[in-house]
Fold these 2 entries.
Entry 1:
Amino acid sequence: MDSKILEIHKSLAKTELPEIKSGMKVKVWYKIKENEKWRTTFFEGIVISVKHGQKTLNSTFTVRKIAVDNIGVEMTWPLHSPIIDKIQVLQKPKVRRAKVYYLRERSRKQVRAKLKTTPKKKEVEAVEEQ
């Protein structure tokens, strides 16, 4: 019985997903069904939590963006959901917490200041050469 369950889990799990951590700025492409047609749209924001790891089928992640008039919008998806088309990682800032729920109380400008991005390799090499 257990081997059958494991086979089903392996067949449903996605293998081409990037490693997602809290604090990352991501763009999630997902499918929406309108009447009989499916269309693909994206949701761009900051990952505020990743729950249950990345290897299990019941793992989820929450993305938050700040819309017009500083209204926060959050969406939570199962990581291995067939609705998710792809996930692009846009920024990888240095964050010291596993859950960055404290960003909920902050404005867009405060969030940008709080999540400072780490320098890229090319920038580090250019500084070291000088």
Entry 2:
Amino acid sequence: MSWGKKAAGFKAGQKYGAVKTHCGAGHKHDSKAEAVRCDQLRLAERAGVISDLRYQVAYPLVPGGVPILLRSASRPNGVCAKITFDHVYCEGGIEVADDSKGMPGPDFALRLAVFQASYPHIRTRLNGVDTPGRTVTNIGGTNG
């Protein structure tokens, strides 16, 4: 078998080997960690700790109110760059954008930093832990 081709009878896997998993509510998530986090947040919502739990929420990246446009030959006018969080909810009157990452993609730290500059009023959490505002360090083993 050559690299880059799947063998007969095997499905192509997710990037970084994550396995799609259903949470207790039946939502299909991109990884087991994301499904577990969904179950934790649903319990917190039922207990009244959080409210307004939403899934797969996308935010356009607009630092200083100016959209970051990604241009290509097929999109000469550009499309606004975005970041999508697994879960968004309200906790103590503050909006929280929460994401589960086993292996962040190569551009995640940059997108998160731009998000934090674009939406300073929204708290961000990575794997259930608050991330420092506007500065991201040691995500994916890099400093920045």
